[in-house]
Amino acid sequence: MLTLDQAIANQKYRIAQVNTQATGSVDLDRARQLFELGFIKGESVILLRKTMPGSDPMVVRIGTSTFALRKIEAMSIGVEIDQS
């Protein structure tokens, strides 16, 4: 499974999981913030572009909302290609 930071721009993905232990410790605040923004299992997400240098932050769209997402946050979101 890919994480959102590994996604290809303009490809439609579906969120498979939000991992709250991406940095080795439970980060409930990050999980809560992502949940409140709509990063929920089953939702569609599109990586619109990565900024330079270092691809941080990334511009993503979930539903009709567009966000700048830090790479550390994107690394905690597991995605799969949306076949629909």
Structural class: alpha+beta
DSSP strand content:
35-45%
Within CATH, the superfamily carries the name Ferrous iron transport protein A (FeoA)
Computed over alpha carbons, the radius of gyration is 12 Å
CATH structural architecture: Roll
CATH class group: Mainly Beta
DSSP E strands, number: 6
In N-to-C order, the SSE pattern is EEHEEEHE
Which sheet architecture does the biggest sheet show? 6 strands, antiparallel
Mean pLDDT, rounded to whole units?
A: 87
Using brief descriptors, characterize the structure shown.
84 residues; single chain; alpha+beta; six-stranded antiparallel beta sheet
Description of the molecule:
The chain has 84 residues and is α+β, with helices and mostly antiparallel strands. It has one domain: SH3 type barrels (Roll), CATH 2.30.30.90. 17% of the residues lie in helices and 37% in strands. It contains 2 helices and 6 strands; from the N terminus they run ββαβββαβ. Strands 1-6-2-3-4-5 form a 6-stranded antiparallel sheet. A hairpin with a 7-residue loop joins strand 3 and strand 4 (58-62). The chain starts with a strand and ends with a strand.
Offer a quick outline of the entry:
This protein is α+β, with helices and mostly antiparallel strands. About 15% of the residues lie in helices and about 35% in strands.
